[in-house]
From TrEMBL:
It comes from Synergistes jonesii. GO terms for molecular function: benzoate transmembrane transporter activity. GO terms for cellular component: plasma membrane. Keywords: Membrane, Transmembrane, Transmembrane helix. The keyword Transmembrane helix applies. Coiled coil: none annotated. This is Benzoate transporter. The chain crosses the membrane at residues 61-80, 135-152, 158-176, 183-205, 217-239, 259-276, 303-322, 334-352, 364-397. InterPro entries: Benzoate_Transporter. Signal peptide: none annotated.
Length: 410
């Protein structure tokens, strides 16, 4: 029995690739990869700085997840001729940042590896849908909202020390969101804070490094607390947030998504990436949504956008040291603003998924407030306890909602 769903195949994908290219799918694919790539680099930088990880780890982390994500994009898009994009989990990186400092680098890598193994097993055993149906999605997304809440609030706290630059960042965001909708709003923020920093003489001279970023091998070490604090929450986020969104995109455009293959590939990426400091390489929900959008033209040719997105995304990681140099020029408050506004859509979406339906209200609140607290018990971080608390409260107070959710499986 085949593990993966059958697709048109690489031969067919490569044969039709050049002929299916047009301005819409090529330009949007490249812009998608470059823009998302550039604006997401500060997120990993911030996660690493919280954990006091050295620059060589940041460099290895970036090149690993970017190149790995690009490879996944090319493989999946060409084999299935679908707009499936690979990258890395933004909520995963930011949600776990607060607990990384509690472990050594090999233990962190071991936690990442557990997540990859977890996802691979889910894919190989075909239990993805079962797991998703057994864990309330509202509780899961409340955990995401809670862990990202502190990062999101930095768009407010940054005003205290750099009000003018931060105000310019917000203006750039609003202008792009309202009037220049083809340009991602966060890119507007990044451009605005750069201009404001130059005008105010706040730009720091930093030598730009055009050399290629290099991966660094790290042998993982298993730590039970790291497995619970890092591995399980990250594994669930990849499957229940990233993959499910990407699957939804395929369904929305009238395509049949290769659910098992998407999960298995995310698991393989989650196993390989940790050995080079990356937290995962997986199917990316938001970027798949971009590549699958109407802006990329004919629905049957949108896979071309995914391929070019992967190429551009990988190049962003290869030259990550140059981008990091550019970002190091602007004040820390401005970078915090960029990070915060990058996450705003995810926080709003997660809150909507958590509380919008009116179900699992108490479980979702327990999950949200626990995750937002950043509490650590027995050396295990808040992401795990948020899922635990939310599920227990749901079973105690909202059994009717839970039974209605799982009854189709019985």
């Amino acid at each position: 029995m085949a593990i993966f769903e059958k697709g048109p195949g690489f031969a067919e994908g490569l044969r039709s690739f050049w002929g299916d290219q047009n301005f819409a799918n090529v330009s949007n694919g490249i812009i998608d990869g470059l823009v998302f790539g550039i604006i997401a680099i500060p997120l990993i930088q911030k996660a690493c700085s919280v954990a006091n990880l050295p620059p060589e780890v940041v460099e290895s982390w970036l090149v690993t997840v970017y190149v790995g994500g690009g490879i996944i994009s090319c493989i999946m898009a060409l084999y299935y001729k679908l707009p499936i994009v690979g990258a890395w989990s933004i909520p995963g990186a930011m949600a776990l940042a607060q607990v990384l400092g509690n472990f050594t680098l090999p233990e962190i890598v071991g936690g990442f590896l557990v997540a990859g193994l977890f996802d691979l097993i889910l894919g190989l055993t075909g239990t993805v849908r079962l797991l998703v149906r057994k864990i309330p999605g509202a509780v899961m997304m409340a955990m995401v909202a809670g862990t990202l809440f502190g990062w999101g609030s930095k768009c407010v706290t940054s005003f205290k020390t750099a009000p003018v630059i931060c105000a310019c960042g917000v203006i750039g965001f609003v202008v792009c969101k309202k009037f220049l909708k083809k340009i991602p709003a966060v890119m507007g923020t990044l451009i605005a804070v750069f201009i404001a920093s130059i005008a105010m003489g706040k730009l720091t001279a930093v030598p730009l490094d055009f050399s290629i970023a290099k991966p660094m091998f790290v042998m993982p070490a298993f730590n039970f607390k790291a497995a619970l604090s890092i591995g399980i929450p990250l594994g669930l986020l990849v499957v229940c947030a990233e993959n499910m969104q990407a699957i939804g995109v395929q369904v929305a455009i009238g395509k049949k998504p290769p659910v098992t293959a998407m999960t298995v590939v995310s698991g393989i990426g989650g196993i390989v990436a940790p050995f080079f400091c990356g937290h995962n390489c997986n199917i990316a929900g938001p970027m798949t949504a971009w590549a699958g959008s109407d802006d990329c033209g004919d629905v049957d040719k949108r896979y071309v956008a995914a391929v070019w997105c992967g190429v551009a995304f990988a190049l962003t990681g290869i030259f990550a040291k140059f981008t990091m140099g550019l970002l190091a020029m602007i004040p820390a408050e401005a970078l915090n603003m960029v990070v915060s506004l990058t996450l705003i859509g995810m926080i709003i979406g997660a809150l909507g998924d958590s509380f919008g339906s009116g179900k699992f209200k108490f479980g979702s609140f327990a999950s949200f407030i626990t995750a937002a607290s950043g509490v650590t018990f027995f050396g295990i971080g808040s992401a795990f306890w948020a899922l635990f608390a939310g599920t227990i409260i749901t079973l105690l107070l909202e059994k009717g909602d839970y039974d209605a959710m799982v009854s189709p499986l019985d």
